[in-house]
Design a protein that fits this description.
Blueprint: E1 5-8, H1 12-20, E2 25-28, H2 34-39, E3 47-50, E4 59-61, E5 67-70, H3 75-80, H4 82-87, H5 89-96, H6 101-106, H7 109-114, H8 120-123, H9 165-171, E6 175-179, E7 185-189, H10 190-193, E8 212-218, E9 225-231, E10 242-251, E11 254-263, H11 273-279, H12 286-296, H13 309-326
Parallel strand pairs: 1-3, 2-3
Antiparallel strand pairs: 4-5, 5-8, 6-7, 6-8, 9-10, 10-11
């Protein structure tokens, strides 16, 4: 690990200003991803600003009957929060499906959103990776790409975003609240936070340098049954091959509305709006689930080792929708 300087921020605006003042500065909170990357010298900040003691660790009711989740709320605390378990069970299920208990006890809400890809070529400094070293190439395209993206990728990067929590938040239409270096506040839909790679996969989010996530805002809980399912190689401590977050509202024998977000298949939580339109008003039966799954994966492109993800994602989506409908 390379030498770096350290300071502890006194408030959100000071933290944002401190990072903005230095091009190579980074925020640090739980550090569950950043410290690993610093040890590998993939991340090489010259200065870190500690935000772990800022008063951003509470969960509060909003005036709209939603929840405001502080950026420092630990993943384990968020998963266990009674209001989250009863009103946003999909979010609790997604959090408990991610990482190990030890990591969930340390990882923060904002850090979870900003964790970086687990593409093995990103972590191997001897291999080309446009996300780590722009212009060097993408070793995953012709390499071992079993875990990689089938949607939203580009010729420069096929890495996926690893977060389970972000997939559930995308389906819930959550918003990210940030503080800029001048003290102003803005909100960003979670679905717009992460960028597709295009020709600049090293630019991963819509955040400016020094812009600090201070909270995630959940709107009022949606009507219908929420469900999160994750398919992975082993039962714990494994990233998703495919995950599905869905909310289904049924009226009689028809689907009134549905929300879908898919993880493990794209560089960001994937929201297939066309599939949601297919389901709205359709009979709650397998034909509609199949049509929605075909629509959701219509643009998918495999790269050899990950071809299996396309039929796997379709099956997972169909089965998750069917399970959600049963209890809707």
């Amino acid at each position: 690990m390379r030498p770096f300087t350290y300071e502890r921020a006194s408030n959100a605006t000071a933290a944002a200003a401190a990072v903005a003042a230095r091009p190579e500065a980074k925020f640090i909170s739980g550090g569950t991803n950043l410290l690993d990357l610093m040890k590998l010298e993939i991340e090489r900040p010259t200065h870190v600003v500690d935000i772990s003691r800022l008063p951003l660790d509470s969960i509060e009711e909003t005036l709209e009957s939603g929840l405001r989740i502080g950026a420092q709320v630990r993943n384990s605390d968020l998963a266990a929060e009674p209001r989250v378990r009863s009103r946003y069970p999909m979010l609790s299920q997604a959090l408990l499906a991610g990482a190990s208990g030890q990591i969930r006890n340390k990882a923060s809400t904002a850090g979870n959103l900003l964790q970086r890809t687990r593409c093995p070529y990103f972590y191997d400094r001897n291999m080309p990776c446009n996300k780590r070293a722009p212009g060097s190439g993408c070793a995953a395209l012709g390499g071992f790409n079993r875990m990689h993206a089938v949607l939203g990728a580009s010729d420069d990067c096929i890495a996926v975003h690893p977060s389970d929590m972000a997939v559930a938040m995308a389906a819930l239409d959550a918003q990210v609240e940030t503080t800029l270096p001048d003290g102003t506040v803005r909100t960003i839909p979670v679905g717009d936070l992460h960028r597709l790679p295009g020709s600049t996969p090293n630019v991963e989010t819509d955040l400016g340098h020094g812009e600090l996530i201070t909270a995630v805002i959940l709107p009022p809980p949606p009507l219908g049954r929420q469900l999160y399912r994750k398919v992975r190689d082993r039962a714990s401590y494994a990233f998703a091959l495919v995950s599905v977050a869905t909310v289904v509202k049924k009226s009689g024998d028809r689907i009134q509305s549905a929300r879908i977000a898919i993880g493990g298949v794209a560089p960001k939580p994937w929201r297939p709006m066309d599939a949601e339109y297919v389901l709205a008003g359709a009979a709650a039966a397998d034909a509609a689930f199949t049509e929605a799954a075909e629509s959701a994966l219509a643009g998918a492109i495999g790269h050899g080792g990950n071809d299996f993800k396309i039929p796997l994602a379709k099956r997972t989506l169909r089965q998750t929708l069917a399970a959600a409908v049963e209890g809707a």
